[in-house]
Amino acid sequence: MTGYGAPPQAYTRDTLVKAIDWIAEQPEHLRSQATNADALVALYLQFKRRSKASDTHPVSGEAFTQDLKNLAKNLEQFSAPEKPTNEKKPTPPQKSVPPSSPQQPVSERVGASPAFASSEVSQGASRGPQWNVDSLSWSQASALKKRLNLSDEGEALRMLIALGSEKLKALLP
Fold first, then answer.
1. Alpha carbons 139 and 159: distance in angstroms, whole number
2. Of the four, 11, 16, 55, 77, which is 20 to 30 A from 128 by CA?
3. Where does the pLDDT of residue 73 fall: very low under 50, low under 70, confident under 90, or very high at 90 and above?
């Protein structure tokens, strides 16, 4: 070992001559580290590697701040336009499902006629589907929506249903 932390290595006379020329131009603290030919060549090669890396990847504080500004501008296109804070958001309906009606179709549970159901579907396209779930399920969907940054609770409920279905398929033969 050279005492410098670099293992001994093979080098040519040309490399040694270049290292000697290089060390002559270096400050005293570097010259004192070059105690023998192995240490000198190790310092020289290390310097060459570092200078190549810095030449290919120059780091500048100004370039970094400019890149950050450009990123901030580019990220603005993804942010949603801010709505005034004085508007109240409509709260989703929290209906509970009667425990005795799982086999009944939805139109019978709600007590609606098929004509009413079709108009409800056309309204639902503009506002999104209405979910007939209990408050506990709705709060779990809200928590999942917040945690995964989903657009609405309906998306969270669909995810919960899909995952629950997959888990049940795996559990039940």
1. 14
2. 77
3. confident
**8 A C-beta contact, residue 2 and residue 19:** no
Contact indicator for 3, 40 with CB cutoff of 8 Å: no
Domain termination site, one of 52, 68, 99: 52
pLDDT digits (tens, 9 = 90+) for 41-50: 999 998 888 8
Residue 36 lies in a domain: yes
In a domain, 59, yes or no: no
Residue 103 has pLDDT above 80, yes or no: no
Q: Is residue 48 part of a domain?
A: yes
CA–CA–CA angle 141, 143, 146 (5° rounding): 110
Nearest alpha carbon to residue 1 among 35, 24, 31, 49: 35
Which residue is listed with tokens 């609770």?
A: 153
Lowest mean pLDDT among 40-54, 93-107, 154-168: 93-107
68 secondary structure, DSSP code: H
- 25 falls within a domain: yes
pTM score: 0.30
Q: Are 118 and 144 in contact (CB under 8 A)?
A: no
Q: Where in the sequence is the domain holding 20, given as residue range(s)?
A: 13-52
